[in-house]
Amino acid sequence: MEKSKLRSTNWFGRKGKDGFIYRAWMKNQGIPADMFEGKPVIGICNTWSELTPCNAHFRDLAESVKKGVLESGGFPVEFPVMSLGETLIKPTAMLYRNLVSMDVEESIRANPIDGVVLLCGCDKTTPSLVMGACSVDIPTLVISGGPMLKGHWKGKDIGTSDVWRFDVAHKLGQISNEEFIEAEACMARTQGHCAVMGTASTMAVMVEALGLSLPNNASIPAADARRKVLSQLSGRRIVDMVKEELTLSKILTRKAFENAIMINAAIGGSTNFVIHLLAIAGRIGVDLNIDDFDEFSQRIPLLVNIQPSGENYMEDLYYSGGLPALIKEMKSIIHNDALTVNGKTMGENCARAEVYDRNIISTMQEPFKPESGIVVVKGNLAPNGAVIKPSAASPSLLKHTGKAVVFENIEDYQARIDDPNLAIDANSIMVLKNVGPKGYPGMAEVGNMALPKKLLVQGVTDMVRISDGRMSGTGFGTVVLHVSPEAAAGGNIGLVQNGDLINLDAHNRTLHLEVSDSELASRKKAWKQSEKMHSRGYVHLYQTHVEQAHLGADMDFLKGGSGSMVSRDSH
Ligand code: FES
């Protein structure tokens, strides 16, 4: 790219008072004048925060990126954006995904940045940054923070999916309070994001599958020195991407999205993948809909043996050959010609990869489970669709009819779930309303409701659960999620009553409430909005504009992009 074409020239290449101001206030950081002379300016968009423990090591990664940028003749500038720590942010990090995407979009466009590196880790930090960058569409490269090393407790490997098991064991008195607390430090023992195929790992796989990162980004552990090497190499590469004008939209084609869906199926990725990929597609202008997830997942079995669908951890995937080795196994079905950030195709990147452990990455012919991916079910209970992850469900419950036990909202569930008088048995279907995008608001990760204690003591380990909310990627069970339209938007899930029969048939993609149309119409007439609609601030903006889950839960006015041009450029 010619120097004059760099965006940053509109700032640092200016003559007169404006140029003076743009340069002078950078020089107060001790930056020599030649840094502004036609060098690609690389923004490093950092979600470092001590309130986002999964991303707390990102200052180190940013330093490695800077080294690489300088080595390639670029000028690195690090900038912060709002960071979403899944564990601490209330009411749910998802409420703020779209807000962060706005922060990222406006920060990139408003500043003298020619290319950007996105430092992503904890769940929502990845989609929010990618969404924001898509709406600007300059050369962009993603680096994930990497997974934690697996935990060890009482001679066993442990990870985030064990939290659900520990909770049940603790409730049943099988482990003591002291043991429960001891396990905390044994599980989260290194830097990095959750070590299983939860949402953060799924997002890291997603960006590599989309071609937005260098190979092996998804699985190098956060604590492994090679994560820093990858960051430095990424810093070198983004400078070349600017020179090649390799923008996001050249990589994020329909083929890239189809690859991501197929690879997500093979890894048993989180259901949150659906909602985030739809939102990213909406920003970059690729036509993708919820049915594509079912269509492109259908032929893909589970090829990776990692929790919660399998038994192992993300570091095991790296030691077994990493994502390139898995993608090579899938070469007969994926789009090998999809372009990636290093300028090579997906097929070229994976050509030399090898599988070192068949207990972690299987062949297509002998998979770990025959059914994987995301199944989209539809019916009068979810006219626009709902999703279920068969690899994390009980096969015997994928076709099931049961009587509804209804919880009006999460507080109602919490108040009554362990009531000894609750009329519920192992065949019941638990229905949780008002945890969708508008209703909660922010679509909480509460869909895998813990089972009632009185059934747990009987040895019941799974039941069908249905909600308009989401589930943590580390969760498991026969859980139908993302019901659309949600209860708070007038969806039929809001009309379900205790004792109604519900029929789930994941094999035939149906979810039916066995209540007549006339009865549903009369219930709808009597329906009243029960959830609080906020009248001020960001939450008001969100509730007014958020779209339903089957569209990606982005805000209607954020779809698409506005490019990288600044509307007015005089002080
Ligand atoms: Fe951050 Fe799991 S809590 S990735």
What does this structure look like?
The protein is an alpha/beta fold and 571 residues long. The chain folds into 2 domains: 39-149 and 190-350, Rossmann fold (3-Layer(aba) Sandwich), CATH 3.40.50.2300; 375-532, Glucose Oxidase, domain 1, CATH 3.50.30. The protein has 20 helices and 14 strands. It has helices at residues 9-12, 16-27, 58-71, 97-110, 125-134, 161-171, 177-187, 199-210, 225-243, 248-251, 254-267, 272-284, 290-297, 314-319, 322-329, 346-350, 410-416, 453-456, 517-526, 537-545; strands at residues 41-46, 75-80, 115-120, 140-144, 151-153, 156-158, 375-379, 382-388, 399-407, 429-432, 464-467, 479-484, 501-505, 510-513. The strands form 3 sheets. An 8-stranded mixed beta sheet has the order 7-8-12-11-10-9-13-14. It has a 4-stranded parallel beta sheet with strand order 2-1-3-4, sandwiched between helices. It has a two-stranded antiparallel ribbon with strand order 5-6. Helix 3 packs across helix 9 (225-243) and helix 8 (199-210) runs antiparallel to helix 11 (254-267). The model has no long low-confidence stretch (mean pLDDT 95). Residues 54, 86-87, 122-123, 160, 193-194, 198, 200 line the site of FE2/S2 (inorganic) cluster.
List key phrases describing it.
20 helices, eight-stranded mixed sheet, alpha/beta, 571 residues, Rossmann fold, 14 strands, Glucose Oxidase, domain 1, binds FE2/S2 (inorganic) cluster, four-stranded parallel sheet, 34% helix
